[in-house]
């Protein structure tokens, strides 16, 4: 469809909306940035005041601790000072810290040293704060850099405090350093800068010794801290209120921006090749065309813009359209399975329709158990019931991708559980136990008309009614007597193997028929007559015939046939010919079908099928007259269909291309993808040879893949038998080794423990691992064995412009 719209109409409302939103967001951004900047400044100043207060407190404490012993230490005269005198000042201006104190005067009276300190030695000091783990390195660096001409004291801060620079809580120490030289002061300042130690303008040590003045400073600092904290809390409340207001409108703003962005992106795809108008081409579902025109008319009426845009159909030829399917909650999961493999071509048969039926059933064939299937069914019903609550959670908290996938497959789980229960009834298997729903068709010594009673090992079971009569047939499923027979495994293996082959052949044949229907719909005669017909003939001659042989063997009354091949007590055969026990079965058989048995003994189908190809015309155990000749004819027809499949289509395309005039000669458009990028300067004959060689190679690959694929795909369907056997045997092992052992022990506690173990093992292995295994194998059978017969999977998904989906993303 082609859409034309006015440039002015398309941009006016969107630009106004976005400009208004941008101005509003800029105003909020300015407010928030101002509050954040103010908060950072206040926080920095608050942390500095905390450190300053710690420096005041710690300085007062360790000076008070030293005050008691200061007088006695200061009155003592150094006896060595008179002998050696005071040390000289070095060239760099340094002098020992206690040089004047150690200088003695002969005959100095008691208290003379105190006078010197008070009158002559004025010490400078600096107070700061440092990370606790830097103490040793800091102290060592002070001593080495000042050559011991400083005196440092340290006090730990009991709690971690926020660093003024980074804001991170850290353990710190307060230091005070005494010195008496400007040179040493410069060195100490450089060391503090190197270690990240911050110095604070704490009053000198004489003021610190004054308790009243120091207390006044501490109280002022505490008051300033309280004020700063109050301002910080107010700032935090303002920021929180602003952010809450922004958060409430975030979803609205995001939806507006996404919508406008998406609209602009789509408008960028339009072309301005009409004066004053924008023109764009796109796809629309045919059934929605009327609705689209109605919406355009309603929009024009609401905005009072008559003729601002119009919708018209683009003339042919069109490019290949995208593929769109209307799905509901039931078919969504199956369509996703198919689309994961590949999207169908436009108007190609959609495999999801058949997958919705065959996928659960093939899963049930592998997982067939009444009890385990009921667990899956209950799980699917639980998902179905809780789905509305899940949707409400998604609308408020967002969607979880994995949980959403589980809920999307709720109907699939229900159908899988139903099919597993149905096949479980066919197999008569419930948690590895047989159910005696009807009377058994077999009787044995000790039985009571059904499977009730006891039976000894080696007892022989016989039909309770003549073969083929109503009384000898179990009403539905497998007779429970087979579950207690010594040849149980042989019987179930034979039944499940043949059933798997039959369903496999039916599904593959259905896939080939779908290929023919696709060819008929698209009018591709070459594909129908030269691909579909050879394929279906090859399939019927070999594989459908194999399924017919299985049904034939099941339908024949072999008791009667074996009677026809026996020698009676009167020495006569079934057709009244003289015989003896030493005669061969072929001689005694009244059917005279040939082979070694004459048709009076059940054949081994595996050997018979192998001999169709390896030993044509020879049937050792025939089931009908002329079986050898019929199989030879079928094999010849199947072999003849292979060259037709290999060469038919390439030759047809070659002659069709050659019969066209040179001016109209062009590559044939078929289902085979061919390279058409050759330039016009190439020789037309080289183009024809190149196209023919491509088609021939492609068709050769198709033929080999089909012929070998039919054999391998048929064998692949045996997984239906193998996984069913594995599931049954695992369930039987868990029951016999856990529950049956506990029941035989006659201990309630042992039964309770065994049941708990049985439930856990069953849930972990059979309801989880085996469920996933059967699920993946059923999916593989559809992707490889079924869909490759007809499905190209190279289409393009139709993705309409939808604002609702845009908001969800």
Fold topology:
Layout: E1 2-6, H1 7-67, H2 70-75, H3 81-84, H4 99-102, H5 112-119, E2 124-131, H6 135-146, E3 151-156, E4 161-162, E5 169-170, E6 172-179, H7 182-195, E7 198-200, H8 205-208, H9 211-268, E8 271-274, E9 277-281, H10 289-303, E10 309-312, H11 332-341, H12 352-367, H13 370-397, H14 401-408, H15 410-427, E11 442-443, E12 462-463, H16 488-522, H17 525-555, H18 558-564, H19 585-588, H20 605-614, H21 627-659, H22 684-716, H23 719-744, H24 748-786, H25 803-808
Helix pairs in contact: 1-9, 6-7, 11-12, 12-15, 12-23, 12-24, 13-15, 16-17, 16-22, 16-23, 17-21, 17-22, 21-22, 23-24
Brief descriptors of the model:
809 residues; alpha+beta; four-stranded antiparallel beta sheet; 25 helices; 6% strand; elongated
Tally of helical runs: 25
Using the CA coordinates, give the radius of gyration.
48 Å
Question: What kind of sheet is the major sheet?
Answer: 4 strands, antiparallel
Structural class: alpha+beta
What percent of residues are in strands?
5-15%
Quaternary form: single chain
What is the typical, i.e. mean, pLDDT?
83
Tally of DSSP β-strands: 12
Strand order of the largest sheet: 8-9-1-10
- Tell me the distance between the termini: 27 Å
Q: Care to describe what's here?
A:
With 809 residues, the chain is α+β, with helices and mostly antiparallel strands. 61% of the residues lie in helices and 6% in strands. It has 25 helices and twelve strands. It has helices at residues 7-67, 70-75, 81-84, 99-102, 112-119, 135-146, 182-195, 205-208, 211-268, 289-303, 332-341, 352-367, 370-397, 401-408, 410-427, 488-522, 525-555, 558-564, 585-588, 605-614, 627-659, 684-716, 719-744, 748-786, 803-808; strands at 2-6, 124-131, 151-156, 161-162, 169-170, 172-179, 198-200, 271-274, 277-281, 309-312, 442-443, 462-463. The strands form four sheets. Strands 8-9-1-10 form a four-stranded antiparallel β-sheet. A hairpin with a 2-residue loop joins strand 8 (271-274) and strand 9. Helix 12 packs parallel to helix 23, helix 13 (370-397) runs antiparallel to helix 15 and helix 16 runs antiparallel to helix 22 (684-716). The two termini are 27 Å apart.
